[in-house]
Amino acid sequence: MRARVEGVVQGVGFRPFVHRLACEHTLAGWVRNDRRGVLLEIEGEHAALQRFLERLAREAPPLAVIERLRTEPLRASGERGFQILASAGAGAAATLVSPDIAPCRECLAELFDPRDRRHRYPFINCTNCGPRFTIIRGLPYDRSLSTMAAFALCAACRREYEDPGSRRFHAQPNACPACGPTARLIDSAGAAVDVADAVAGAAAALAGGRIVAIKGVGGYHLACRADDEHAVAELRRRKRREQKPFALMAGDAGAVEELVELSAAERELLAGRERPIVLARRRPGARVAAAVAPGLAELGVMLPSTPLHELLLADAGTTLVMSSGNHGEEPIAYEDEDALRRLGSIADLLLVHDRPIETRVDDSVLARAPGSSPAGVLMLRRARGYTPGSIALPLPATPLLACGAELKSTFCLAKGSRAWVAQHLGDLRNWETLRSYSAGIGHFEALFDVEPVVVAHDLHPDYMSTGYALGRGRAQLVGVQHHHAHLAAVLAEHGELGPALGAIYDGSGFGGDGTVWGGELLAGDLRGVRRVGHLRPVALPGGDAAVREPWRMACAWLLASFDGEAPCPPPIAARVARERWEQIAALARSGVASPPTTSVGRLFDAIAALCGIRMSVSEEGRAAAELEAIAEPAERASYPLAVLEGEVVVLDARETVRAVVEDLGAGVSPALISARFHNGLADATARALTLLAQREGLGTAVLGGGVFQNRLLLERCAAALARSGLRLLTPRQLPPNDGAISYGQAAVAASRLTATRAQ
Ligand code: ZN
Ligand code: ZN
Ligand code: FE
Question: What is the mean pLDDT of residues 119-138?
Fold first, then answer.
């Protein structure tokens, strides 16, 4: 019998596994890698062949993902023994690349075993764990096509590499202190620091309150003690990062539980081999500096993601801030010279090593989403540990590239029923991000052998991603409306084509009618949608400037809600000059540089500003996140929000704003105001969707868009919709925010082209 196995089957110990299985069932034959995956021939008793196949699928090594297994009968040739053959390089690459994986249990045991030859070796790995995507330069996955190429295996490592019985058989990054990468501790000028052990030296400096840049698997972090007020405040000052929360890394699960309350699901996520940052509720009295996550009820925590981090945390003996290695909004540093240049002014010391990072990958961020998604998990940033895992498409695609949006950008390549969504690349607004964006597209095209004949893009004419799409040439272009892409992304990841209703709430998206969209009720499928409702528009005073100054939205909403009169409310008057308020009110009234917007994100900004939360933000949505954080979870009352039924449904939030003002006047706490606002919006959303479902004859509702990163809103919407009988789909594998746009565009393009061909 011949069997072909496709999926993530190279570099994960698949061939030795096949070898062992064949020997156990006394089957003869061979196995080898080729560009499509793994090919094998076995011969023996029929019953033994059957058992072999069953176990092949069931007992595959931990990192393997079998996507397809096809067999064909062969005439027996009387072969003896079972062999692992050399790779065959010809043919089209369709092998899937594994993400980067945290150290496995066996490697960890060796790491801390003083008798092991890899005791305290920061780059220990095996076929079940270690770096993959971030070190791969090309396919087939082989040491010579990775950033390990410069390290020649020593005799001991080569023996393991060539021994089918070893856990390190064909482990491409296999290394040891004698032959592999080494860690070094340097100062901010690049000079070596004289320490016996670089990791222990860095740990001691951290424990003593210094700031250390650390080269991780996908880029640099900036670290300091999490409980040191001075160190954390100093890191925040040097990074020029005023508001964004810092992530923490704790040595083990026990240390995590001292900081945050964990459910069983959260505990599992944290310890998963992807090692994401998990957002969880902060324990009262948790020993964490105030500057770590100002204004937030949650902390982002992770466990060590590499052997180097395992050692570092064990040596430091304290939880560390592990924040991205960058200034302000720049992409994180991952190349050594660049890191020294950019991080030298922030860090006192740098813990570096000589294994280059080929691809920059940020930490992933997840949170539990109670009651909303079947898996109970909400992806907020998809990167390390998940990329480049493929996501299925519900219909076959001709080779295509989808360029995504602008904020939290990703791109997506697709071919057949598979889509590869790039890791979170950051905001596509600077040259550095554009460079990793276009280089990343080239890298993915080569890795997954996709030559796009179709290029999908957002309709926004000013997005860099749109410019990139138009500049590629020779491909068929497919423009996809932003909120349609949000809806399509959720449908497609659930394997559905539609039709469905969608409530798509986000910051902003190009609608094409001169209005800035962001509170849209859509009806349709992957191919197309109709806008069947929206939030009542108000002015966006000063355009993008209103995103950075949420109080401008409070002004716009007050004008709309009180017949053009907007006296400055006390929480804002205390922090915004009267003339500025009057200027912005005049601007909003005039309509100059103030396009109408239906953005729900901006409505959140308005309520947050009315509650006095933040007058200016460094990042979109920060004020809304803090509004969510202060909400009183037990509060069940809600503000009125009218659902007006006309040709389209209009969500009229003016009553809501009037009720907020009334409560503020009566001295009601922001915690209650926030909760009542969330409840009212969720209730109105459910009423609008229920009404539209009847009108349109649809039974499925989709929630999507960046506003649904707000888990309180998601949970309350799901609860309100549970009574409607509508089937609810929410984002799961991809974030609700614009990180999912590229995949949504891919689904829409695939659907439209299938339709064209069918006609
Ligand atoms: Zn391992
Ligand atoms: Zn070695
Ligand atoms: Fe969006």
Answer: 95
Whether 219 and 347 map to the same domain: the answer is yes
Ligand number with the minimum distance to the CA of 736: 3
Q: Are residues 221 and 331 in the same domain?
A: yes
Cβ partners under 8 Å of residue 579, min gap 6? none
489 lies in the same domain as 579: no
pLDDT tens per residue, range 397-409: 999 999 999 999 9
Structure-token pair, residue 482: 């932003």
How many C-beta atoms lie closer than 10 Å to residue 16's C-beta?
A: 20
Asked if residue 137 is part of any domain, the answer here is no
Digit-coded pLDDT (tens) for 7-17? 888 878 888 89
Same domain as 483, residue 547? no
Output the domain CATH number for residue 392: 3.30.420.360
Same domain for 723 and 741?
no
Quote the ligand 2 centre to 157 CA distance (angstroms). 4
pLDDT at position 507 over 60: yes
The pLDDT of residue 327 is 83
Same domain, yes or no: 481 and 347: no
Residues 6+ apart with CB under 8 A from 541: 552, 553, 555, 556, 584, 587, 588, 593, 594
* Ligand 1 midpoint to CA 63 (Å): 11
Domain membership flag for residue 173: no
Note the ligand closest to the C-alpha atom of 177: 2
pLDDT (tens digit per residue) in 458-500 = 999 999 999 999 999 889 999 999 999 999 999 999 999 999 9
CA angle 342, 343, 348 (to 5 degrees): 145
pLDDT value for 758 = 53
Query: Is the residue at 391 inside a domain?
Result: yes
Query: Which one of 84, 119, 139 terminates a domain?
Result: 84
The whole-model pTM stands at 0.93
Tell me the CA–centroid distance for residue 495 and ligand 1, in Å. 34
| C-beta of residue 457 within 8 angstroms of C-beta of residue 471 | no
Residue at a domain's end among 338, 353, 368: 353
Residues in the 5 Å CB sphere of ion ligand 3 = 506, 509, 738
404 C-alpha vs ligand 3 centroid, how far in Å?
A: 10
Which contiguous run of DSSP H or E holds residue 653?
none
Shared-domain flag, residues 313 and 291: yes
Give the model's confidence band at 89: pLDDT under 50 very low, under 70 low, under 90 confident, else very high.
Answer: low
Q: Which residues surround ligand 1, an ion (CB under 5 A)?
A: 104, 107, 126, 128-129
Number of domains in the chain: 4
> What is d(CA 168, CA 171) in angstroms, rounded to the nearest whole number?
5
The CATH number assigned to the domain holding 73 equals: 3.30.70.100
- State the residue range of the domain holding 559: 517-523+532-729
Q: Which ligand is nearest to the CA of 310?
A: 1
**Is 127 inside any structural domain?**
no
Q: CATH number of the domain that 665 lies in?
A: 3.30.420.40
* 671 and 540 in a common domain: yes
Query: pLDDT at residue 252 above 80?
Result: yes
Measure the CA angle with vertex 559, ends 554 and 563; round to 5°: 150
Ligand 2 centroid, distance to 102 Cα (angstroms): 20
Q: What pLDDT is stored for residue 18 in this prediction? A: 93
**198 and 181 in contact (C-beta within 8 Å)?**
no
CA of 355 to the centre of ligand 2 (A): 14
Point out which residues pair with 390 in neighbouring strands.
420
Q: Which numbered ligand comes closest to the C-alpha of 174?
A: 2
Cα–ligand 3 centroid distance for 707 (angstroms): 9
